[in-house]
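Issue 218. Parser rejects a valid record. Input:
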Amino acid sequence: MNSSEFILLHTTRFGENSMILHTLSREYGRKGLFVRNISRRSVTSVFFPLAILEADITDNSRSKLSNARNFALVYPLNGIRNNLSKSAIAMFISEVLYRVIRDGMQDDALYDMCVKDIMLLDAMEADFSNFQLYFLLEFIIALGFSPEPRDLQPFMGGNMPLVSEFSGLPFSEAMLVPMSGELRNDIAEKLLKYIEYHTESAVNVNSLKVLRELFK
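Output the parser choked on:
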């Protein structure tokens, strides 16, 4: 048994009071954890999208899933949890990570980037409507792809000049680039198509619909 820190990407119910946690950690990469005897309070107070948790992990020789218990939040992330818009962005980011990162994939730099972005989103008080675009562009680089104009152009079309400007700006200035909700979601969808093409997998991110409604 060892204590490990991880980011919660997704949960899957298993029976009446058990759950599989789909997680990303520096130590294990993408990994499934099995949790028994979960209380309703734990589901709402601990197991939320992008929660950064610490728990005791025990490997199971009969399963790819490790057992986990004694959960504690590493950071409260009240800035995300108490803001509907930021919670929706967190849900989107967690679903992208869940859909794209494969079991066993381990990358310390990717984990550190995710923690940095989670903490950054949590701390922001305003002007975070463009955050998901910033995250997607960083994620593409972390995956080892190069979001240069010549690579993105086939996907971006007429939005390429704006995306080039956005990606070249310091973070604080990129957050202030004016965009309609429709344009922002269109760019996000095309960046996901870019990720789909290069990872050769379908990335069906349902939570993008929530962002479309919130940031019209």
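Fixed in the parser; the record now loads. DSSP finds ten helices and five strands in the chain.
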